[in-house]
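From the shared-data thread, chain only:
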Amino acid sequence: MRGFTGGISDMTTKWAIKDKYGDFEVVRDAEGHPHALGEGTFGVTFEAVRKRLVGGREIVDRYALKVLDPTMFESSTMRTQFITELTSVQGIIDTNLVRYIDYGEQEGQPYVVMDLCGGGDLGELVRRLGVPLPERIAAQIGVQVARGLQCMHERKMVHRDIKPGNIMLASASKPGTISEVEALLGDASLCRIVDFGLVKSSEVVSDAAARKHFFGTLKYASPEQI
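Structure, as tokens:
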């Protein structure tokens, strides 16, 4: 077993990434390093596979597996909050929200399994293109994100950390040109919101005590948070 040394951050040097979390096996490169997809507020996301035998044939499904920083869940309060929030979003199925498949704990490391979005995140897309997205494309992306947020708001939930890094592209590969992005946007489920670690009930967010603390990413925070 080898710890992560891929250079995303020092977060994963605090613990060794396991080979398997529940039924899900972490994908590793030729040198044995876990294939990291990105880093969020509470942990690092890796590519993982689940292998099943169906009718004598092996079926391999690919997912995104997020391993959460165990030091953030040492207290029983944090663990209870983690379970409560995941339970609340796991049952939500919407074309513009990343679907939660499973969650659990492996040798003290909490983890979450989600749909794998091969197109990467929106922030990565803009950096890769090297130019601002045209207004017509930005508007189409905004509509899809708004639909995902509407689904959450109808269930009285607030994300609290909407930013380009939390908008995933559900495509088989990463688009490399503006025209490729525009073609992919023909799919109304291309853009999907991810990272529900800061999701809260709208009733809780509106509470005076809750408003004393800052949550999310400063650069993308709402005016009332500032």
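The CA atoms of residues 6 and 33 lie 7 Å apart.
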